[in-house]
């Protein structure tokens, strides 16, 4: 394929420093403060009512820390917010993701189908919290503990897509066998992770195929990819390497990726064969 510019790709570039407080956190915090003051509550009174510390409530109101879903549900109940906080929760969660990933996460949240190929790691939507934690702790340059915590939480929040019902989202994951044999964290973490793969593969809207190492060379070895289709049938391709990302929507380029992906599906193990392989690996650990 020819060289594609940043404008043609739609979104492309390297992750930059994330020093400013996300606008979604600030907007959410201002609403919490507004509802709290309307209710005649102090920060301490709100903290006591929802089971958080005063410092945590203050941090959320000032936009210094993102609210988790449990905070939102408790605040909705105590402050009678009428859903105003709940509707902002997806934006709050998305803002915890790395900047380079946030635009794609918005496309992903609006998709009706998501097909991916992952050659090196278990895809984020199928990761356990312990697996994600181990990966982020190995990041370079090193991330501080608060950033690791926020990104793990954001990754776990994204997994709600697996259970979305209106409209449902169809998933196909092709993962290299070597990716699930790589021990991330420790044996206990990997045993839990493999069990999670089996759990997800049993979902009606999820297909998980393992590409066996015995397959040898194939076109997927050029790198990972995610293919999305939106409700209006527009298609996108997301590719990432070392935090350099590109999202493409040109019809001819996207078509080539979909054809490539179709070939990979025929080369990978079936869903039943894949589950049997994972089960054998659990027994080997």
Describe this structure in a few short sentences.
Residues 1-21 are annotated as: Disordered. With 285 residues, the chain is α/β, with parallel strands linked by helices.
Question: Can you walk through the features of this model?
Answer:
The chain is α/β, with parallel strands linked by helices and 285 residues long. It has two domains: 23-93, 434 Repressor (Amino-terminal Domain) (Orthogonal Bundle); 98-284, Endonuclease, Chain A, CATH 3.30.870. Helices cover 48% and strands 15% of the residues. It contains 13 helices and seven strands. It has helices at 6-9, 23-38, 43-50, 54-61, 69-79, 89-94, 99-109, 129-137, 145-158, 177-181, 187-201, 251-267, 271-284; strands at 11-14, 111-118, 170-176, 206-211, 225-230, 235-241, 244-248. The protein has a seven-stranded mixed β-sheet, with helices on both faces. Strand 5 and strand 6 form a beta hairpin. Helix 3 (43-50) packs across helix 4 and helix 11 packs antiparallel against helix 13. It starts with 5 loop residues before the first helix and ends with a helix. The relative contact order is 0.13.
Characteristics:
15% strand, seven-stranded mixed sheet, 285 residues, disordered N terminus, Endonuclease, Chain A, single chain, 434 Repressor (Amino-terminal Domain), 2 domains, alpha/beta, globular
Helix content: 40-55%
Along the chain, the helix and strand elements come as HEHHHHHHEHHEHHEEEEHH
Determine the number of helices (DSSP H or I, runs of at least 4 residues): 13
* Architecture (CATH level 2) name of the largest domain: 2-Layer Sandwich
Instruction: List the uncertain runs.
Output: 1-18
Helix and strand content put the structural class at alpha/beta
Q: Would you tell me which CATH topology of the largest domain applies?
A: Endonuclease, Chain A
């Amino acid at each position: 394929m020819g060289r594609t510019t940043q404008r043609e790709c739609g979104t492309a570039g390297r992750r930059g420093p994330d020093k400013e407080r996300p606008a979604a956190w600030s907007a959410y915090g201002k609403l919490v403060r507004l509802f709290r003051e309307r209710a005649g509550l102090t920060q301490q009174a709100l903290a006591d009512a929802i089971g958080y510390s005063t410092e945590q409530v203050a941090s959320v109101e000032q936009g210094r820390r993102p609210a988790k879903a449990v905070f939102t549900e408790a605040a909705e109940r105590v402050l009678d917010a009428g859903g105003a906080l709940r509707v902002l929760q997806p934006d709050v969660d998305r803002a915890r993701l790395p900047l380079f990933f946030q635009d794609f996460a918005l496309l992903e949240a609006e998709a009706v189908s998501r097909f991916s190929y992952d050659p090196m790691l278990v895809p984020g939507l199928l990761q356990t919290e312990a697996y994600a934690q181990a990966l982020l702790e190995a990041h370079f340059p090193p991330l501080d503990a608060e950033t690791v915590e926020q990104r793990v939480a954001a990754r776990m929040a994204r997994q709600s897509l697996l259970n979305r019902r209106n409209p449902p989202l169809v998933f196909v994951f092709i993962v290299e066998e070597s990716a699930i044999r790589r021990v991330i964290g420790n044996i206990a973490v990997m045993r839990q992770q493999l069990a999670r793969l089996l759990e997800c593969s049993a979902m009606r809207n999820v297909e998980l195929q393992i590409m066996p190492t015995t397959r040898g060379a194939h076109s997927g070895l050029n790198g990972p990819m995610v293919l999305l289709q939106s409700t209006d049938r527009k298609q996108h391709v997301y590719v990432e390497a070392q935090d350099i990302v590109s999202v493409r929507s040109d019809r001819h380029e996207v078509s080539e990726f979909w054809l490539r992906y179709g070939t990979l599906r025929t080369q990978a193990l079936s869903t039943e064969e894949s589950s049997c392989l994972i089960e054998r690996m659990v027994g080997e650990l």
